[in-house]
Amino acid sequence: MAENDDASRGPVSRGGVAPQPLFAVAAVLLGSFLANFDSRLTTVGLPDLRGAFSLSFDEGAWLSTAGIGSQIFIAPAVAWLATVFGLRRVLGIPSLVYAAVSLIIPFVRDYPTLMILSVVHGLLLGTFVPATLMIVFRNLPIRWWLPAIALYSIRVGFALDTSSSLVGFYVDHLNWQWVYWQSVVIAPLMGLMVYLGTPNDPVNRALLREADWGGMLLLGASVSMIYAGLDQGNRLDWLGSGTVMALLVGGGVLFVAFVINEVLARQPWAHVNVLFSRNVGLSLVVILLYTLTSLSNSTLVPNFLGNVILLRPEQSGLLLLTYGALPMFVLVPISIWLLRHFDPRLVVVLGFACFAAANLWGTQLTHDWAREDFIGIVLLQAVGQSTTLLPIIILAVSNSDPSRATAFAAYIQIMRLGGAEIGVALMGTWLRVREQVHSFYLGQNLEVGDVNVVRALKQLADHFAAHGTGSAQARAVGTLAGFVQREANVLAYIDGFWLCFWLAMVALGFIALITRAPPGPFTPAPFGFAKMLLRKCGVPVT
Fold it and tell me: Residue-wise over 281-295: b if at least 16 C-beta within 10 A, else e?
């Protein structure tokens, strides 16, 4: 990373030193957890929110898109804003405003007002995560960097595995409003820790005068527009929708304009040269592949349990909480130990191998599977969550140039937020298209007059005849059609698991291209068996 401790910490604070810097670290870690939980809760609880706000399906879809799209718009610029204006202004004040907006939203019934507040809600939420790594490096001793980054990285999997249970608890035992009101409690606490843990830095007017506002606006707008187009594409039939085409083409044009701006700007904010470092570029690609591969955890398992097994979020959430989230309390310390003594590339290979094994297991899916049949898959995914994202971040940070920390932070936020949300949108389309394909092929085998079809319809009609002979035949036909749709859904989810399996295999191929990171604070210290193994492989060990 760098030759000395100060340099390895990236841009240093310009003002005084806060008496309790650990509060700043705790604040940004809490903020990162809050951001993931709030985003996930809104997604999982969207059906309940549509009912509570009396929204149509289309209105609910745009509400979700507006909230997450605004996060993507602001997130790439937050690290630069924190460097210029100080963390107290960028995180402390928004946390209090965020609490106020979260308090107000459940009382709103006017749709335009609700959309405006959702955009503001997303913009404020988007400020909570991006500055985390920068604050960790500035305020913690080197020996604590790895555990802090582990907490930062594991929040993704933990939020995925606990959000369904939490939404179910709020809806069934409290009120749906707590999907928003939990932030009224947590956000002010985060603001207090920011105030206690950060110095009152003066505004860095030198950097402010050189601000690349055009680059920030172009990148944020382009990525958020592309996300909105992909998110709405599945619902609006992609190229058949002028809205989707306008968003995708407009976002692409703005991104090209951003690249041109960064090339021509005198002081580029996020110069694309940061991507030309082999290991950094490959690490960012692997982060994107991680977000796509982990869709088996965030989308396939809970959606199958909800759409095919017809479980409520709190019912499927119990599986993810027990076998996905809770094991992380054991798995994360193991991951930290592995990274202290083994090359992070080996650890991330272990993580993707677990994801690949879980997805391969998922391809054996049938309609008879119950919640308990997914225990092994969820456990493997928990190991994958604990041993994948953390070493990828370590690889990216170890190979990055501290002088370009804000540019690196911008691109990693695009991969973190944009990759995850775009992946969810594409997986939704994949499942829909595959379900239609399988429905077509299964339907071709149900020919009118076929002996097996006639026999099945007669058995179903005899079963329903006890409840009324007049409707028995119609109910039999409807039930048989439901069986076809169910099997088509099962086959579509199997295709989803296959897709995630091959994404994991592609990720393993990219990891093989990453070279050893230069010596730095994250260089592992092998011992015992690890040292012997490295020597046998011809790797010099000190």
Answer: bbbbbbbbbbbbbbb
